[in-house]
Amino acid sequence: MKRLLTYVLVIVAILSISLLPVRAQGAELTIWFTGDDTGAAVLQEVVNVWAESSGNSVTVSAVGWGDAYATALAAVADGSGADIIIGGMSWGISLGNLGGMVELSELYPEEITQVAEQSNSAFYDAILTTEGEVYYVPFNLDTMLMYYLPAKFEEAGVEVPTTWDGVAAAAEAGVTGGWSWGNTSWLGFQGVLKQAGGDWYAPDCSAAAINSEEGMAALEYYTALYEDYGFPAEAVPTADALATGELAFVFSGEWEATGINAAHPELEGQWSVAPLPAGPTGSFNAFIGGKGMGILSYSPNVDAAFDLMMYLSTSEAQQALAELSLSMGNSIHVPPQTANYEFIQGGDEVREALSTQLGDAAGPSNCPGWEETNADIDLILQSVLFEGADFADALAEMEDVLNDGIAEYGA
Questions:
Q1: Cβ-based neighbours of 173, under 8 Å, separated by 6 or more
Q2: Residues whose CB falls within 8 Å of the CB of residue 39, separated by 6 or more in sequence, listed in order
Q3: Which of 76, 289, 319, 369 fits a disulfide with 409 by CB distance 3.0 to 4.6 angstroms?
Q4: How many beta carbons lie within 10 A of that of residue 18, not counting itself?
Q5: How far, in Å, CA of 233 to CA of 248, rounded?
Q6: pLDDT digits over 286-296, tens only?
Q7: Taking phi first (over 0 means left), then psi (-120 to 50 degrees means alpha), and beta for anything else, what does residue 390 get?
Q8: pLDDT tens, position by position, for the chain (411 residues)?
Q9: Is the CA virtual torsion 8, 61, 293, 121 positive or negative?
């Protein structure tokens, strides 16, 4: 079955590639893919189709998350290595500011305009510099969802929470949750901040905006999750927590959707998935992450590399990535183009929840200094949660950290 699927995808993709312009032939391209060997193998199968049709060759190498950014930095300094990197969504900005990435909108303005129109806007906005420079195009998306056990809520006589008040009501009835991806860090807190109507910075990145009424409301609710509503201090293993019944709901990434039944077959049909509970503004915002892809500035194969990235942005390639990710690695590949959400695997319920959540999501800030200072934000949040730090003092401290980052890195 897998061979038949791959054969069909290859034929469809070859027909699609024939409609794409190919500016270079005979290039030998290397991609550094941030992730595991299975993800790299999936990507290799997909790019092989482009290589065969275009007359180029492509080698995909997996680089672990712990080493990938340092590897890219070293390559920029040395002027050698891969042609394309696929990695953390903010890396394009930081490496581009060092002169290590090709600015794509200058060389390929029409194609980049089309990419912007087709992509999830929250993700795309987060990978631009504050000046609008484009060093990256989207490869895939990740976001947070709520996994839950409907029977637990039915037994307690409370509704599945769709709002902050619903989370509080569930806790009062003895129904507790937990956080996995983003636990006790800015990754999780950011969604809460947006749900409260707040933000880290002013829209023009001129100053921090965290020290506000909205920031206070977010910090109070976020702390209540752990102090009053029973969230464990440690990150929750989603499948295990649901299987034991220790927790009735967990906030985590979309990748959990294909792992729960695999880890605990007895849970099949017993769990469900939904967007995050909404805050007082009505927003149910969640952090949106994922990978971008860009061309390192020393590459001798810029045109061919860009053509390959444009192929990976087609519906045919995204469908292949989604279907092969599930069949080869039991994982979910979320296309970054809104029109391609239809290819999301894992079932109709997962696809619907993901599509809805991706409509109210936000990536990491692109303001100067964010990448360099967000670890300090984590420490301040944790001082509130675990050391009893004063809320007002914590907000003022975060404000100082962010403003110092603007001052240091804004130039």
A1: 156, 157, 158
A2: 33, 62, 325, 329, 331
A3: 369
A4: 10
A5: 16
A6: 999 999 999 99
A7: beta
A8: 444 444 444 444 444 444 455 566 889 999 999 999 999 999 999 999 999 999 999 999 999 999 999 999 999 999 999 999 999 998 999 999 999 999 999 999 999 999 999 999 999 999 999 999 999 999 999 999 999 999 999 999 999 999 999 999 999 999 999 999 999 999 999 999 999 999 999 999 999 999 999 999 999 999 999 999 999 999 999 999 999 999 999 999 999 999 999 999 999 999 999 999 999 999 999 999 999 999 999 999 999 999 999 999 999 999 999 999 999 999 999 999 999 999 999 999 999 999 999 999 999 999 999 989 999 999 999 999 999 999 999 999 999 999 999 999 986
A9: positive
CB 127 within 8 A of CB 292: yes
Task: Answer for the pair 280, 164: CB distance below 8 angstroms, yes or no.
Answer: yes
Return the closest-CA partner of residue 235 out of 218, 220, 221, 253: 253
Catalogue all structural domains in the chain, each as residue range(s) with its CATH number.
Answer: 2-142+289-362 (3.40.190.10), 143-287+366-409 (3.40.190.10)
Nearest to 330 by CA among 259, 270, 242, 272: 259
The Cα diameter of the chain in Å comes to: 66
60's tokens: 């995909």
Query: Around 393, how many Cα atoms within 13 Å sit in the side-chain half-sphere?
Result: 7
Return the residue matching tokens 């503004």. Answer: 281
Beta bridge partners of 142: 289
- State the Cα angle at 131 between 127 and 132, rounded to 5°: 45
List 101's β-bridge partners, or say none: 296
